[in-house]
Amino acid sequence: MALLLLGLSAAAVWKLIQLKRSPHDAPLRSVALCLLCAAVSNLLAMPGGEAGVESVAGSGTARLIQNLLLLLTVYFLMCFYLYSADGQAGRRRARIEAIVVAVVGVTITVCAETVPARELAGTFTSGDMTVPQVALFFNGAGLYLMYALGMAAYWTRRYARMSRRPHSTGLWMAAAGLILMALECAIRAVIVTVRWAGATVPEPIIIAVAFMLMASILVFVAGITYSGARARVASLQLWLRHRRDHRRLYPLWALLSQAYPQHVLPPASQAALDRWRARSVHRRYHRRIVECRDGLVDISPYLINEEDDATAVLDLDSVQLAARIRRASALVGQGTPAPRTVVPLAMAAGGDHRSDVRQLIAVSDALRAERGLQ
């Protein structure tokens, strides 16, 4: 529960910050309010939060506020879909839904105010459902939650069919979680009706419904975070690869930058923490590739021996090219004039950026190995 509250609070704060930047974004506003209501509702559900409210406002108040916040949570969730999909028609539908949720909210408030406070002080399991107001309190909120969650599941399923992976996978998971939550609300409504009629419900069924609720919440949270989490994992993998390749290119870069220091670009920032930021790592990686390419262009006239023709350098493998680059760097350092014009260096098979980088890394690794043998 604490981890769920922490996650909801962090997500709500982030969405509120985004909303401050785009105050007229109706779907974003709905998501921010949905998360905020869910976070406060979960806070009230915790023992400390419930006790704090009831010590000030009286017994049963925390449960009433918690249920009202849950109604608003699913209402704003519906508004997100309405504003995103239907435009002006969605805004009209959102106003109608606001009337519906207001009626339900007033109904459960009247129920809570017309019974002794102790009747709502208990949980769903311990509450006396033979009292009509208590039964209507739980069923009124539960049936609206079932309706709103069912509609949200329908729209999520529709978006999942129109989306591609990985977004569709996350949407299908979110839809499954919403369906399970709606089904759990329906089962709770049946349980309330059975208990209102004076019958008892076996304890294993109550426990199974509670586990079903927790499982549905976990599936829903996993679904809405799936695509974002997957993107973050892919971003981390790219960061690690660029950082590793940046280090592997160092032997080649060191030789070429020593021969042609004018090709070394100035760093964008001198801050120590900037070296670990994703943008800085990517920037330094691409900058090193550019510096290596420029250096290879300038040093290419020194790579051909006197007995070779102008295209002989194109047939060299990584080890041979590394050896010639080391000798050419020494010639440049001695001030030897270039014997000929620049020679285009062939890239590895594939002809794309990644193939180019692989060849540069292969030459740099050969330089590192050659230096280790000396």
Structure description:
The chain is an all-alpha fold. Helices cover 75% and strands 0% of the residues. It is built from twelve helices and no strands. It has helices spanning 2-21, 26-45, 47-57, 61-85, 87-113, 132-162, 167-196, 203-248, 250-259, 278-299, 318-333, 353-373. Helix 5 packs antiparallel against helix 6, helix 7 (167-196) runs antiparallel to helix 8 and helix 9 crosses helix 12. The longest helix is centred in the middle third of the chain and has 46 residues, at 203-248. It is rod-shaped. The model has no long low-confidence stretch (mean pLDDT 77).
Keywords:
single chain; 374 residues; mainly alpha; 12 helices; rod-shaped
Helical content (DSSP H or I, runs of 4+)? over 70%
Question: Compute the gyration radius: what is it?
Answer: 33 Å
Task: Spell out the helices and strands N to C.
Answer: HHHHHHHHHHHH
Give the amount of beta strand, in percent.
under 5%
Low-confidence stretches: none
State the shape: rod-shaped
Tell me which oligomeric state these chains represent.
single chain
Q: Distance between termini?
A: 61 Å
Concise structural overview:
With 374 residues, the chain is mainly α. 75% of the residues lie in helices and 0% in strands. α9 runs parallel beside α11.
SSE blueprint and pairings:
Elements: H1 2-21, H2 26-45, H3 47-57, H4 61-85, H5 87-113, H6 132-162, H7 167-196, H8 203-248, H9 250-259, H10 278-299, H11 318-333, H12 353-373
Helix pairs in contact: 1-2, 2-4, 4-5, 4-6, 5-6, 6-7, 7-8, 8-10, 9-10, 9-11, 9-12, 11-12
